[in-house]
Design a protein that fits this description.
- There is one protein chain.
- By secondary structure, this protein is of the alpha+beta class.
- It has 17 helices and 21 strands.
- Helices cover 31% and strands 19% of the residues.
- Strands 1, 2, 10, 11, 12, 13, 20 and 21 form an eight-stranded mixed β-sheet that branches. Strands 14, 15, 16, 17, 18 and 19 form a six-stranded antiparallel β-sheet that branches. It has a three-stranded antiparallel β-sheet with strand order 3-5-4.
- 54% of the residues are buried.
Length: 577
């Protein structure tokens, strides 16, 4: 009997997975499907992590649906695009491993009934004018999921962001929102809206705390969680991981978690997977690695504080190097509530690209293509000298009534509370608004005047708003000649401050093609795997297209589960010891 056999263990299993986002749940499911015993431990009281509150997109080039979606793809085309957008920020070996495994992962999970996603027929890569870019097919969305299938476990699934729901917890996508806003003008939209509202009313009457029609990242998390539940994989909530146990050879042999107030030693005969969501709420590491200024502006769950990364580092794992960015950026506005708490709102795809909005810095000048990707928008904030942090999104009355502005919803919804809280800035004239914003009035007037001249012509020679397929995809398809450009009209005018926020971290533990954590010399640490945002991004902190966080999370979770199943280090050894 060896020393590890003699050690006291409170629980034994083949694999223990820390974290219940896309990476963690996929690793758990894949290992289970291969015949291994698995335990999933989650720090919080909810399942789903960042995945459950995300947009849910998956960037998976070469998937089996691309041709049917109207965008046949090739390895050469994708590789050319990644060379342009990611380049040396990630190794060729890791990029190749991703492109090879991701389509197989998607087909495998679908064949097992664990995850179903549909390719977008129109969804341009974020840099559509670069060689190798695609206008659709590479990004997929999880299909709608009926939360009632989770039974009593539905209440355990993390809720989506409340700001992304309507009518007291009804999830909606872009198509739904457009129909809801047009319900008074279109019979088709009225039918669509009534169908949604009747379904939601039925859910609430049956006692559900929110709607059970699940979309976006909530549908993705729900599908994976449904697999966990139906396969009987045990999961522990409120069980934060505190220590990685290693044997005398340095192999990850188990995990110490705290459950019901006491530490429990869990033996993992095959290995440990850490997938705890990265470090966006670790203020110390954020200060060390993020460009300055930075602050508590993340959209990730606040419990994503770098636990898994610290565990891996204590076992000798090395962090990634040579990355383009330490995080995936998004402009975020912040509402200060009366109780002192803060509500962060991400300006991702809804308002910035629409016609009649501009972004300015504290000098009252434009500095960015407002319809660029959320990641590129924040890169432009950082490039300013000084950085444009905070910046302002600015619009007129017509725009805010039509499209809204952050937490200020469209359709004439009440906004006085947002103005009184200082979140929504208002001015009868541009001069008044400039004074409220604290920017030079003459500069702001000149900026708007110049923008208006060009917007009326449908072109933006200064920053190219609406100048490529991705920009126009997010604009107003009914507006001509440019779906992203319209002059600002008469006042009153509105603005919100936006900060250099993130939707998660890209800097993580260095790993190989099997998702094994690597030490400083590049050697795998036996038994230790990383997935999700605990793993160094295969995109190296670049952001080529929608879904480049969740696609790799699923893929490397899948690869970790498969490699664990092939490991030679346990049951056979135990039987002969």
């Amino acid at each position: 009997m060896n020393a590890m056999d003699a050690m006291h263990w409170d629980h034994e299993t083949d694999v223990v997975v820390a974290g219940s986002g896309a990476g963690g749940m996929t690793a758990a499911l894949t290992a289970h499907e291969a015949g291994l015993d698995v335990l999933l431990v989650e720090k919080t009281d909810r399942i789903g992590g960042s995945t459950a509150i995300s947009g849910g997109a998956l960037w998976i080039p070469l998937n089996s649906q691309t041709e049917a979606a109207g965008h046949p793809d090739s390895f050469e085309q994708v590789w050319r695009y990644l060379e342009q957008t990611v380049g040396a920020a990630s190794s060729d070996a890791m990029k190749r491993a991703y492109l090879d495994a991701a389509p197989r992962m998607l087909d495998d999970l679908a064949a097992r009934g664990l995850l179903h996603a549909a390719a977008r027929t129109a969804s341009p890569d974020y840099y559509p004018d670069l060689p190798g870019a695609a206008l659709g097919g590479r990004s997929l969305d999880p299909v709608e999921f009926d939360g009632r299938k989770l039974g009593r476990h539905f209440g355990v699934l993390r809720d989506p962001l409340r700001e992304f729901t309507v009518a007291g917890g009804m999830m909606v996508n872009v198509t739904d929102v457009r129909h809801l806003l047009a319900a008074a003008r279109s019979l088709e939209s009225l039918r669509h809206a009534l169908k949604l509202l009747l379904r939601h009313a039925g859910d609430r009457l049956r006692g559900y705390h929110r709607g059970t029609r699940l979309l976006l990242g909530n549908a993705l998390a729900a599908q994976l969680f449904h697999g966990i539940v139906t396969r009987g994989i045990p999961y522990w909530l409120r069980a934060p991981a505190r220590e990685l146990v290693r044997d005398s050879d340095g192999r990850a042999a188990g995990l110490v978690v705290v459950r019901e107030g006491r530490p429990l030693r869990i033996r993992a005969r095959r290995g440990v997977v850490v997938a705890t969501g990265g470090f966006p709420w670790d203020a110390g590491r954020r200060a060390q690695t993020y460009p300055q200024p930075t602050g508590p502006w993340s959209m990730a769950p606040r419990d994503n504080a770098g636990d898994g990364i610290r565990l891996a580092e204590a076992a000798g794992a090395a962090l990634g190097e040579g990355y383009a960015s330490p995080a995936f950026w998004a402009p975020v506005s912040v509402l200060e509530r009366p109780d002192g708490s803060r509500l962060n709102y991400p300006h991702l795809v809804w308002d910035r690209a629409k016609p009649g909005l501009i972004a300015v810095n504290d000098a009252g000048e434009r500095f960015v293509n407002e319809s660029a990707s959320y990641h590129e928008f924040v890169l432009a904030m950082h490039r300013g000298r000084p950085p444009a942090i905070p910046a302002f999104l600015l619009c007129d009355q017509r725009f805010i009534d039509t499209w809204g502005l952050g937490l200020a919803l469209p359709g004439g919804r009440p906004r006085r509370h947002l103005i009184e809280a200082g979140y929504l800035l208002r001015g009868a004239t541009l001069q008044d608004l400039a004074a409220t914003m604290g920017v030079p009035g003459e500069a702001l007037r000149n900026t708007v005047a110049r923008y208006n001249v060009h917007a009326a012509r449908g072109a933006d020679p200064d920053f190219g708003k609406g100048g490529n397929a991705y920009n126009r995809y997010l604009g107003d398809p009914e507006h001509r000649p440019n779906p992203c450009l319209a002059p600002l009209g008469a006042g009153p005018y509105y603005a919100v401050k936006v900060y250099a926020g993130d939707i998660g971290t890209a800097l993580g533990v260095q790993a190989n093609e099997n998702a094994q954590a690597l030490d400083a010399s590049g050697r795998p640490i036996p038994g230790l795997y990383v997935a999700g945002n605990d793993m160094q991004s295969v995109m190296g902190g670049a952001y080529p297209g929608p879904g480049i966080t969740l696609g790799p999370a699923l893929t490397f979770g899948w690869l970790a589960g498969r490699h664990l199943a092939r490991s030679e280090n346990v049951r056979e050894t135990l039987q002969t010891s």
